[in-house]
Specification:
27 helices
Length: about 500
């Protein structure tokens, strides 16, 4: 271990020496290859900044985790070239470089990795005036770089969606552009991951987007930005929106007039219907519980598909009636993912005829669920597995890694202890009923029976796993659920055995 540390230290020293004399182009390439996901060490960073080379500054701007360093580089990027002796060509090159340097700074996802607050960017790096300039006058690339940066923090997105703070004075067209840029922000699809310290953070974003549906001007210009915002989102485990509020949003956007016949390429639905289906899938849980497959309104049916546990017959009826709209909605239904038989049916009979959008969304949902709970994220059917392989979809790590909260593990531990006690009690009871009077053997206490039951594997047949169950565990939709179900069956077998013995011992 000590030799590894020394070797690493030597390599760092050699690299630092090399970078201190290497050309700016070589330094730029080295930083982009070695420091893609993290910042150089502080000493190396200070040494490179002291060179005052444009290419070196550009490379550091994209990877540094130091707010002070990024603020210093950003100030350089804001400096304008006003020297009269500079040629027009030199001035244009300088402005293009400054623009690229600003975009590199705004795209930096390392500087606020562990401190996702509005203060981190606006007060410590940009400043209020520069932030206002970007929001009100910044170019499209600057807007995209800043508002798609996950370290910007959810509070800025909330202000954008709720039209608060500086966004209360932004024109409608400008706000549409910013919302479009923010639709690429990973915060919209992150659920209790490294981008949110707790589930309530994502809940605030989820609620703010609903506010956008309530305050955005009802016009065709808003359709695509809102659809792009809703597409990557999840429905958090929280109290659902009141059905009345959701129905009012439905009614609001049903009035949107769209010129010509434009279909959503992802669902093949007219744009207005596509938007309503997404709103219903994300926010219509309470509406879905009150509706059914035969409801005359498409949005209400989509809310139903996304919320209620359905049988295979109901899933088939929904697919036959609404096609791609059904597919887009049912991808939000956790019941389909967590039931092995329903998930297998969905993959083999329904998802296989969907478009690439539905396949990609299914893959994303599986990834999202695997981060939240114990869940097998890869396809459970051979057909979909082959389809994903042909499309070059990377297989997700399928190691069995249960994800439960502390209470869940406590319940599982209690269940195992209870099972051990039941085994010992059953062995002791049956021994005293039959072995003692028949063979004149000494009585067996419960504690001794518990210890004896462990090595001899009492009731071995109750916990043998069939080939079919092995397949389910290997491709487990909910492995802990399967284990709990198996333990429940073993408890039932023990109680059934003792009950039978209780009846029989009266005849001895």
């Amino acid at each position: 271990m000590h030799s590894e540390v020394i070797t690493k230290w030597k390599e760092e020293q050699i690299s630092n020496s090399y970078l201190s004399y290497a050309s700016p182009q070589d330094v730029f390439r080295y930083i982009n290859e070695v420091f893609v996901d993290h910042s150089p060490n502080n000493d190396l960073e200070r040494m490179l900044l002291a060179r005052d080379e444009p290419l070196v500054d550009l490379a550091i701007a994209a990877v540094t985790s130091s707010r002070e360093t990024l603020a210093t580089i950003y100030k350089k990027a804001r400096a304008t070239n006003s020297e009269k002796e500079k040629s027009l060509r030199e001035s244009q090159i300088s402005q293009e470089y400054a623009s690229g340097l600003r975009v590199a700074c705004l795209s930096n996802a390392n500087v606020g990795k562990w401190s996702l607050t509005k203060k981190n960017w606006i007060e410590n790096i940009l400043g209020e005036d520069e932030y206002a300039r970007i929001v009100l006058e910044g170019g499209d690339v600057e807007i995209l770089a800043l508002f798609s940066n996950p370290t910007l923090g959810q509070s800025v997105l909330n202000e954008l969606y709720l039209k608060e703070g500086i966004f209360s004075s932004v024109s409608e067209s400008r706000r549409i552009s910013i919302v479009s840029a923010a639709s690429h922000n990973p915060l919209l699809s992150s659920w209790e991951s490294e981008r949110h310290s707790k589930a309530s953070d994502y809940q605030k974003v989820y609620d703010a987007v609903f506010g956008l549906l309530q305050n955005a001007q009802v016009s065709e210009k808003w359709i695509h930005p809102i659809i792009s915002t809703l597409d990557p989102m999840l429905r958090p485990q929280s109290p659902p929106k009141e059905s009345q509020a959701v129905l009012e949003v439905f009614a609001r956007w049903e009035k949107c007039e769209i010129e010509g016949s434009h279909d959503d390429y992802q669902t093949s639905l007219p744009l207005r219907e596509a938007l309503l289906c997404r709103i219903a899938s994300l926010y219509g849980f309470s509406v879905g519980l009150k509706s059914n497959i035969d409801h005359p309104d498409l949005a209400s049916r989509c809310a139903h598909y996304a919320s209620v546990k359905m049988s295979k017959a109901q899933m088939k009826a929904g697919m036959d009636r609404d096609g791609y709209a059904y597919l887009a909605a049912v991808l939000f239904n956790d019941h389909i993912f967590l039931d092995f038989k329903l998930r297998m049916y969905f993959e083999t009979e329904q998802l296989c005829i969907g478009e690439s959008y539905h396949l990609d969304k299914y893959h994303e949902r599986c990834q999202q669920l695997s981060k939240k709970r114990s869940f097998y994220p890869n396809p459970v059917s051979n057909e979909l597995r082959q389809t994903f392989e042909a499309r070059g979809v990377k297989k997700i790590d399928n190691r069995f890694s249960p994800k439960m909260d502390f209470g869940g593990w406590c319940r599982m531990l209690f269940f195992f202890v209870l099972l051990c006690v039941l085994r010992g009690w059953a062995l002791s009871t049956l021994w005293n009923w039959f072995a003692v009077p028949t063979f004149s053997l000494p009585q067996l206490g419960t504690i001794a029976a518990i210890g004896l039951a462990l090595p001899i594997g009492i009731f071995r047949g109750a916990h043998e796993i069939s080939e079919g169950e092995k397949l389910k565990l290997e491709q487990a939709v909910d492995p802990l659920g399967l284990i709990s179900d198996k333990l429940s069956k073993e408890v039932s077998a023990i109680l059934g055995c003792v009950s039978t013995g209780w009846l029989v011992h009266f005849f001895i």
